[in-house]
Write a structure and sequence with these properties.
By secondary structure, the chain is of the alpha+beta class. The protein folds into 2 domains: 114 residues, Phosphorylase Kinase, domain 1 (2-Layer Sandwich), CATH 3.30.200.20; 233 residues, Aminoglycoside 3'-phosphotransferase, Chain: A, domain 2 (Alpha-Beta Complex), CATH 3.90.1200.10. It has 11 helices and 11 strands. Strands 1, 2, 3, 4, 5 and 6 form a 6-stranded antiparallel beta sheet that branches. Strands 7-9-10 form a 3-stranded antiparallel beta sheet. The chain has a two-stranded antiparallel ribbon with strand order 8-11. Bound molecules: adenosine-5'-diphosphate, 2-acetamido-2-deoxy-1-O-phosphono-alpha-D-glucopyranose and magnesium ion. Adenosine-5'-diphosphate (ADP) binds next to loops.
Length: 365
């Protein structure tokens, strides 16, 4: 998407000059693949304001009203769970409504914006650095599931239908291969063959009869904020895909993004492997919070979750590459292919180490 033409106007839609001071400017923020996120700065101090703006990617989220309805319910429930606890304003996201009273503001180009309370003095990680960080991030996501286990009905909307339906993701890849919109099939034969050889695993979670819960569904490590001072993971962010799902989806994406010491788009595939100490830390952290409510069948499903969600992301990155990069933001020409290759290498490593992963999970009960 092009840079916004009138960010100052967007800022004023959410807060007055009296509240924030004179608008000085904004800078893109974070490394998300979906939305355009900005930090905004105000006079007189020039210090960053306690507000973060996001232009919503409506190509990905086709029904923004329904999306915001989910988020309003989820954030209100999290706030209620935290009532009375110290530092609660930094432990859950909160929307800042537009001055119109609505959650979303349409700018003069028709793009939709929302504002969040900025969670200050935190950092996010595109790659986990230590077992202690892996434990922290996984504990935060486990706690998030626990907090939302008491969300009253009705069922949340599916903001992206079939989001973790791996067989449908596989079918989308076959479609992309058949269309070959960007003329890239010829050069991706090895990746296509790897994906096809594992088609039989695609149904492992969706067909297992596991209970539906409220899950985050995008538990990659940069969707949790760590406190600058204590290093604790204090706040789960990126709530757009919070919807009904399986506990294993969340655990699986943690394994994908927190147990490999290299980034998601690592091009030196020799560096891609599951690190057993990181895996154990993720499992311990997640189960320290979620262990209290998971059923035995859900705990059993955690063994294959990492391999399956990593495979699913490989399918999605490859599909996007074949479609000509229409979904994920990219920062270099073959970025989606690099991401796909890294995921496939991690799938291979997870397959190789599956008995050890099972033993670790079993030892944790
Ligand atoms: P995307 O869907 O594009 O990944 P996110 O909601 O994850 O968008 O936001 C992108 C990045 O912006 C995050 O990884 C985080 O670094 C930062 N961020 C988002 N919301 C906040 C917030 N309320 N406070 C502080 N940082 C935030
Ligand atoms: C996207 O929004 P972000 O960057 O946190 C994507 C996830 C993928 C991830 C891969 C809505 O997450 O599903 O796992 O990229 N989000 C959406 O890095 O598709
Ligand atoms: Mg994100």
């Amino acid at each position: 998407m092009n840079p916004p033409r009138d960010l100052a106007g967007v800022v004023r839609a959410f807060a007055t000059e009296g509240e924030l001071g004179e608008y000085l400017g904004a800078e893109p923020y974070g490394n998300g693949h979906i939305h355009d996120t900005y930090r905004v700065f105000f006079a007189p101090s020039g210090a960053p304001a306690r507000i973060i703006l996001q232009r919503i990617n409506t190509h990905v989220f086709r029904n923004p009203e329904v999306l915001m309805e989910n988020i309003a319910r989820v954030t209100a429930h999290l706030a209620a769970q935290l009532a009375g606890s110290p530092d609660r304003d930094r432990r859950a996201l909160a929307l800042i409504p537009a001055r119109s009273g609505r959650a979303l503001h349409a700018d003069r180009d028709g793009h939709l914006w929302r504002a969040w309370r900025f969670i200050d003095s935190t950092f996010s990680l595109d790659q986990i650095g230590s077992p202690a960080q892996a434990f922290e991030a996984a504990r935060a996501f486990g706690l998030f599931q626990q907090q939302l286990a008491t969300l009253p009905p009705p069922r949340l909307h599916d903001t992206i239908p079939g989001f973790h339906h791996t067989p449908k993701r596989y079918a989308a890849l076959e479609d992309a291969i058949a269309r070959d919109a960007a003329g890239r099939v010829h050069d991706t034969q090895a990746e296509i063959a790897f994906a096809r050889a594992r088609q039989s695993i695609a149904g492992l979670l969706v067909d297992a009869g596991l209970p539906e819960r409220v899950t985050h569904n995008d538990t990659k490590c940069n969707n949790v904020l760590f406190d600058d001072r204590t290093g604790q993971a204090i706040c789960v962010i990126d709530l757009d895909t919070v919807m009904p799902g399986l506990a294993a989806y969340d655990f699986g994406d943690m394994v994908r993004t927190m147990t490999c010491p290299s980034p998601e788009d690592e091009t030196d595939l020799a560096r891609i492997r599951v690190d057993l100490a990181l895996f154990e830390a993720v499992a311990r952290g997640y189960l320290s919070a979620a262990g209290s409510f998971l059923m035995p069948a859900e705990k059993d499903s955690l063994v294959v979750a990492g391999k399956l969600i990593t495979y699913e992301l490989a399918l999605r990155f490859l599909t996007d590459y074949l479609n000509g990069d229409t979904y994920f933001k990219i920062h270099r020409p073959a970025h989606n292919l690099d991401r796909c290759r890294a995921q496939l290498a991690l799938v291979a490593s997870l397959e190789e180490h599956e008995p050890e992963l099972a033993r670790i999970l079993q030892s944790l009960g």
